[in-house]
Amino acid sequence: MSFTELLCCLVVVSLCISGVVLVSSDIIASLKIVLSKTALDSFIESQRLEAVVRSRPVDVFYDFRSRRVSSTTGMVFEDCLWENPENFRIRFNGDGSIAILSGSTTLNFADGSVLTIQPVTGKVSY
Questions:
Q1: From CA 17, how far away is CA 68, in angstroms rounded?
Q2: Rounded mean pLDDT of 89-107?
């Protein structure tokens, strides 16, 4: 194998590797967002169930400065990957119903996807 052939092979291999790295980073970023949505959905549902079990209201707060969702039960959700620069406050009543007390519960993510927490029902839609 000549030096030119070896150089061409190295260029082709490096292009293939860089293509794989670029594609895998997009896949990983997308997967992180999907997992964050699922984790937030689980966190919200656990707080709703906690309100039902305790038979008293549970408040959930999002602070955009610290990028954390916290609850009056002491639980905290820190994997907030959405880009909304606005706080929100949700209350789960003892019967499982939800009230959005302040802010917007439509959350926009970097990949252009949206997660919405519906008022009254508390249903989460992606």
A1: 37
A2: 89
Q: CA 100 to CA 122: how far, in whole Å?
A: 9
Rounded CA gap, 79 and 119, in Å? 23
Residue 28 CA to residue 22 CA, distance in Å, equals: 10
Q: Which domains does the chain have, with CATH numbers?
A: 3-125 (3.55.40)
Span 26-67, pLDDT tens digits? 888 888 888 888 888 899 999 999 999 999 999 999 998 888
Q: What is the pTM of this model?
A: 0.77
The pairing of strands 58-63 and 124-125 is: unpaired
The candidate with the shortest Cα–Cα distance to 92, out of 114, 119, 112, 62, is 119
- Residue 32: phi, psi to the nearest 5? -60, -40
Beta pairing, strands 98-102 & 88-92:
antiparallel
